Amino acid sequence: MLTLTGGGIRPEGWPLAAPLVRADIVVYGGGLAGCAAAWKAAATAPDRSVALVVPYPEHQYGGLATIGGQNFWDVRYWAGDGRLVQGGSFAHWFNAVGPFYRPADLAARIAADLGGLANLETYWAMDITAVRKDRRGRLKGIALRGLQRDAAGTVIWGEESLILTASIFVDASEDGRLSRLSRAGVTVGRTDWPAEFLVGDFVRLEGRIELCPRQQAATLMFKVRRVQPDRYRDMIFRQERGVWAAYGGREVYINDPVVTAFNDRYGPAGFALKPLNAVQDGAGSSDWWVNALLIFNVDGRANGRDRRHDAYPRDMAPGALDTDTAWRKAREMLLNPDFIRALRRFDGFQNAELVLDAGGGPVTGGMLYLRETVHTVVDPREAGPGTEDSNYAMTAAATHGAGSGPTEGNDLGNYVNRIGLGFYWQDINAYRFEDLKGADGRYRWPVTPFLRPDYPWTTPGPGGWPQNPVYIPFNTLLSRPVPNLLIPGYAASISSLAWAELRVLPNQCVLGDAAGVAAAYAVTKGREPGTFTDADVAAVREILVHRFGARVDK
Questions:
Q1: Among residues 310, 322, 317, which one has the least CA distance to residue 178?
Q2: Cβ atoms within 10 Å, residue 290
Q3: What's the sign of the alpha-carbon dihedral 525, 526, 528, 533?
Q4: Which of 16, 231, 326, 409 keeps 20 to 30 A from 138, CA to CA?
Q5: Neighbour-count burial of 249, counting CB atoms closer than 10 A to its CB (0-12 exposed, 13-18 middle, 19+ buried)
Q6: 282 φ, ψ to 5°?
Q7: What is the pLDDT of residues 117-141, one digit of tens each?
Q8: What is the dihedral sign for C-alpha 178, 378, 391, 488?
Q9: Handedness of CA 342, 346, 349, 351 (dihedral sign)
C-alpha cells in the first residue's frame, strides 16, 4: 500500500483565527538538515526573511544530534584521498565539537551560528496542522500549533497557533510531514525494493493481500554510567579530543546466552539489543550515551497527537506503533531488569548503570532515532516494488556503484547537476525482528547482505561497498507535484536502499546546505526550484563551494 498523499481520516483544518506571519522562505525541521538549510538560506539572501519551524518541544537546535542523544557523527573517510567528503555546515560543526561530543556543545554551536542572522526567526515547539496550496500545486502557507509535553513526557498539542506564508518551503524533517501533507508524492519505507525481498511486507487486510512496507527499526538513545574503557577482544574503545567512544559487541550479540535469551524473549514483542555504539557525554563526564536498543514496527510518520486527523497515516502496517507509543514503551523496556543484565554482557559495560532522572525514569533522548520514513518519487504513477533504480533522483545503483571521478561509475549521470557528495556504508538496520536471525536460527550482524543478497559486499569495513562517494544531484531535493518545495530531509527523492547510505548526519548536512542556498537563489531570482535549469544549478553549486566550503568533486 502506497502513501502518495497525506492520507488521513479527518483533517484538523485551517485555524479560524491565528496570527499571520509572512516570510520569504520557510524551513520545517529542527535537526541538522533544517539548521543547515536555514543558516545557508539566511546567509545567502540577507535581505530576505527566513522562518525556521522546530517541531519538537525542546528549545534546542539539532534534533537527533542534540536532544536525541546521538552524539557521534557516523563518518567514513574515503580511501581515494583519505579525507571526509562532506564539507559546508558538517565540516564547520565537526571541527567545532569533534567526532564525539557533548550534545549541549553542538546545540550551543548551532545556536551561535544561527543567532547571528538578523533575518532568521525561529518558531520553537510548533508543528503543522494543515497546509494550503494554489491550483498549480504550489504551497502558499502552513498552519502551526504549539507543542508541549504532558506529565508522562508525551508530546501533545498546546494552545498557541500561527499561520506562516512564503514563496519557498523546505521540508528538512525526519517524518516528511510537510511533504506528505502537501502531497509531494512519497512512498513508505522499502516500498521500492524488488518484490522478492518484500515477502514479509505483504499482508492480508479485509480479504485482500496488501503491501504494508516496513521502515527500518528505530532506536532510543539512553544514558549509562560506570563504563570502563580498556582494550577488549569484542569492543573497541578510542578517544578523540578527550572524549571516549565505544563500538562493537558483535560476538557477544551472536553468542552470549544472556543477550540471545533477551532477544529471543523480547524480540517478538518488538525490542532487541544489537552491537552497540556509545559515546561519553563530553570529556571527563561519567555519563555515556548508548545506541543499542532496536525498536521494531515503528511508523515514523505517526504521532499520537494526530490520531483522527489527516497527518495520521491510515496505511500503517498491522500492529505498528506511533512514535509516542514506541518512545514510552522503549523507556519502560530500559527499566526492565533483563535489559541491564543483558547490556552488562558487553565488554566495558560489565558494571554499567542506567542514569535516572529525578522521577526515577531513565534519561533518554527526547525523540526516537528514526532511520527511515518516506521517500519522494519522481512519478507517483510509477510508484511500487522494483522501482529503486527508476523512480527516484538518487538510485540504489548510483550509490552502490559510484565511480572514483566524473568519467565513470553508476553516478556519472548525476555529475552535471551535482550539489554535493554523499558517503557511508550501505548500512541497513533490521526491518523486522526476524531479520536478525539466519536460516540456522543463529543471530547475524550486519543484516544488509542477508536482506539484500543482490548487494553482498556491503559489510562496513575498509573494503566494504560502496567504495566511492556518490554525486548527489539537485533533483534529489525536488517534488514534481509541488514546484516550490525543496526536500533535504528524510523525504528526499532517494530510494530506500540508497537512503541506507545517505541517512547519516554528515550527509543530511550536505542536503540541508544545498536546499538552503537553492531556496535563497529561488527567492532572489523569482524562480521556483522545480523550474531550475542547468545554469541555475551551476550557480547554486558555485555559491555552495566558494562561499560555504562545500565539496562537490571527488
A1: 310
A2: 25
A3: negative
A4: 16
A5: buried
A6: 95, 155
A7: 999 999 999 999 999 999 999 999 9
A8: negative
A9: positive
Name every residue whose Cβ is closer than 8 Å to that of residue 115 and which is 6 or more positions away in sequence.
none
Phi then psi for residue 154, to 5 deg, are: -75, 140
Q: What are phi and psi of 460, to 5 degrees?
A: -55, 140
Alpha helices per DSSP H over 269-311: none
Residue 231, judged by CB atoms within 10 A of its CB (0-12, 13-18, 19+), counts as: exposed
Helices (H), 353-504: 396-400, 448-451, 496-502
Give SS3 for 216.
coil
Q: Cell numbers of 173, please?
A: 524533517
How far is Cα 84 from Cα 550, in angstroms, rounded to an integer? Answer: 11
Helix/strand/coil for 340? helix
Amino acid at 86: Q
Percent of the chain with pLDDT over 90: 90
Here the cell at position 516 is 538552503
Q: What is the pLDDT of residues 367-376, one digit of tens each?
A: 999 999 999 9
Gap between the Cα atoms of 235 and 345, Å rounded:
11
